[in-house]
Amino acid sequence: MGFRQIYISKATKLSCSDGQLIVHRNKEEQPISFPIEDLDIVFLEDPTAVITARLLTELAQKGVAFMTCGSNYLPAAISIPFNGYYKQPEILKFQFNCLPSKKNKMWETLIKAKIGNQLAVLENTVKDENTCELLKAYIANVKFGDSQNMEGAAAKAYFRSLFGPTFIRFGDTPISSALNYGYSILTGALIRSCAFNGLNGNIGIWHSNMQNANNLACDLVEPFRPVVDYYVYQHMEELTEPLSKEFRHGLINLVNEYVAVSKKKYQVSYAMEMLVDDYVEYLKTGDITCVHVPSFMVKTNDESDECE
Predict the structure, then answer these.
(1) 236 and 41 Cβ atoms separated by less than 8 Å
(2) How many whole angstroms separate alpha carbon 125 and alpha carbon 169?
(3) Are 185 and 197 in contact (CB under 8 A)?
(4) Cβ contact 149:113 at 8 Å
């Protein structure tokens, strides 16, 4: 799997030659190229660009996710490998046979991690002690499968503390647009990791929407969402409607930010691969201790791989 994310805002044509992604910008400029084997995600915003079938095939064979967006700049489609893993039938069997009790335990683990990361964001931003204490109580009360919906209660308190008491998560505001964009990018990265590991994205842990082909990625992305929240909070003065190219590029680049996993720091993209690997192992063994969820961490100049 590659390590580079390519963001293309304008292009006339995308093609491939000799293992290279070729980006044709216009007649006046020379095409630029990138080794396909180095790529992780290619993100294209220009709806007028011509894309060759050979390129799509090459990207799929190399396990590269290719994302395109709509007129609102939100990711609208993703191309991923059709058969990304040689033991795909075996993995599918584990998914189908996963008992509700096992899914409930996994969901409990993900939600505790998500609320814990929301707490860390507040502690490093608004420092709202009352809401922080409330989130701690919600974490303690997350039960099997989050049957009491501590996730929803925590989200309501968290977003109002972070973005103001009048903020409505799904309102028509630049903040909501930025959050939606960032969440879509992270979900897209997880869709790719799930496919590469032979998982069927339709079979979720908690999400079960029959019209959503990516229920699983929508579940696994939960602990990573606060990474987007923190970025949007830190850059609220730069928010515009629609989102600027620079802001969108910053959100795409969040897959290169760091989170902590088992007290070591990893880029978000790699931590996602680790979580997907752990989930596959959990499906096989039922041992929740093999699942290592990410913890939010503030970016520092410390180059050490160890986290306090």
Answers:
(1) no
(2) 18
(3) no
(4) no
Reference 216, options 130, 136, 110; nearest CA is: 110
Q: What's the rounded Cα separation, in Å, for the pair 67 and 189?
A: 10
Alpha helices in the chain (DSSP H): 53-61, 88-96, 100-123, 129-140, 150-163, 174-196, 215-220, 225-234, 245-252, 268-285
Given a contact cutoff of 8 angstroms between Cβ atoms, the answer to whether 188 and 41 are in contact is: yes
Tell whether the torsion through CA atoms of 163, 191, 221 and 107 is positive or negative: positive
pLDDT along the chain (308 residues), means of 10: 84 95 89 93 92 94 88 80 69 92 96 98 97 97 93 96 92 92 93 88 87 87 98 96 92 95 95 96 96 88 53
Token pair of 16, please?
Answer: 């491939």
3-state secondary structure of 37: helix
Quickly count: other Cβ atoms within 10 Å of residue 300's Cβ. 10
Residue for token pair 């499906």: 283
Torsion angle of C-alpha atoms 255, 258, 262, 264, degrees rounded to 10 = 130
Q: What is the DSSP letter of 46?
A: -
pTM of the model: 0.89
Beta strands 39-44 and 65-69 are: parallel
Q: Which residue has the tokens 């996963």?
A: 98
Tell me which residue of 189, 158, 180, 206 sits closest to 256, measured CA to CA: 189
> Any idea which residue has 């609220």 for tokens?
236
